[in-house]
Amino acid sequence: MSTTGRRAVTTAATRRGIIDAARELLATHGWQDFTIEAVANRAGVTRVTVYNQVRSKRGLLDAVLADLVDRAGMDQLLTDTEHLSADEACAAIVQRTCLFWHSERELLRPLFGLAAADHDVASILDQREEWRSNQLHSLVRRLAAESAPSLDEADVLAGVTAVTSFVTYDALGPIANDPDRAARLLTHLVRSLTG
After folding, report:
1. Taking the CB of residue 119, how many other CB atoms lie within 10 A of it?
2. Contact 164, 190 (CB under 8 A)
3. With contact defined as beta carbons under 8 Å apart, do 99 and 179 qualify?
4. Contacts of 64 (CB under 8 A, 6+ apart)
5. Which one of 94, 113, 131, 174 has the fewest CB atoms closer than 10 angstroms to its CB?
6. Phi, then psi, of 170 in degrees rounded to 5
7. Distance CA 132, CA 122 (A)
8. What is the end-to-end Cα distance of the chain in Å, rounded?
C-alpha cells in the first residue's frame, strides 16, 4: 500500500475513533461534558486532531448524527423502497424509521430536549429534519399518485413529517418500547393523512 493509501486509512480510523468517542459521550454524559477536549481524551488523540477532523463542537455533533444516519442506511430509504408499491414503501419507510428512532433513543432524547434551549443543537436537528422532510416529500407524492388526498400536498407533508418524527415516536411512551407496534400505529396515521 502506498504512503498516501496508508495515510488515508489512518485518517479514516482516527475519524472513526473520534466519532465513536463523541457518540459515547453524548449517550452517557450531559451536553456540558461534551467538549472537544473530552472527546479527544476519550479517543486518545489531541484536541488539534479533533479540530482538524470536525472544526468545532457543532461539527462534532453533526458528524455523529451523519454517522448514525449513514450506519442505519436512512439516506437509502427511497432507493431501497422504489421497487415497492407506494403503500408498501410507506410501511417499510415508517418501519425502518421507527427502528432507527428506537435504537438511537438514548442519544437522541437528550439532544431533542436540549434543542429547546440551545440554538446550535436546534439548528443541527432542524437541518436533519429538513433533509428527512425532503425524503418524505417523494413518498407523499407517490402516495398521492395512488389516491386522492383531501388535503393540500404541503399540509400532508407537514403532517407526515410530524407524525414520523423522533419527538412523536418518543411521545408514544410504552408503545415506543416496541418499534413494530409503533410502526403499525404511525403507518396508519400516515395513511390517514395521505389517502
Report:
1. 8
2. yes
3. yes
4. 19, 22, 23, 26, 107
5. 174
6. -65, -30
7. 15
8. 56
DSSP 182: H
**How far apart, in whole angstroms, are the C-alpha atoms of residue 64 and residue 194?**
33
Alpha-carbon dihedral 42, 26, 124, 72, rounded to 10 degrees: 90
CA 139/CA 156 separation, integer angstroms:
11
> Rounded CA gap, 127 and 62, in Å?
10
pLDDT tens digits in sequence order for the chain, 195 residues long = 778 888 888 899 999 999 999 999 998 888 889 999 999 999 999 999 999 999 999 999 999 999 999 999 999 999 999 999 999 999 999 999 999 999 999 899 989 999 999 999 999 999 999 999 999 999 999 998 888 767 899 999 999 999 999 999 999 999 999 999 999 999 999 999 987
Neighbouring CB atoms inside 10 A of 131's CB total 13
Global pTM?
Answer: 0.90
